[in-house]
Structures are given as C-alpha cells and as structure tokens.
Amino acid sequence: MKKLNKETLLNRRAFLRRSIVGRLIPAVTVYLIAKSTPPLFGQSSAGRQEPI
Description:
Keywords: Membrane, Transmembrane, Transmembrane helix. By secondary structure, the chain is an all-alpha fold. About 75% of the residues lie in helices and about 0% in strands. It has helices spanning about 5-35, 40-45.
C-alpha cells in the first residue's frame, strides 16, 4: 500500500485542489440558486441540502 513520496505528494496536491474547487463551486451555485429563488423555496431547502 506504500507509494513513492513524489506520487503521494502530487496526489495530495491534486486531491486538495479538486476538493477545494469541488466544495467551492457547488457552494457558490447553491448560494446563487438560493438567492435567486423565492423564500418559499430557498430558505427551507438551502440550509438542509449539502452539495455532493
């Protein structure tokens, strides 16, 4: 299960970038959707829904 240090470092950097972008983009989209939709839809679902 051990990998080379260079591979793990590169994988971790790529994973960090993907995770940051993967969390940031859906958060922004959910925020924009919740902001654009009427309060009937936005407030109830925006707080409970989590981006996958």
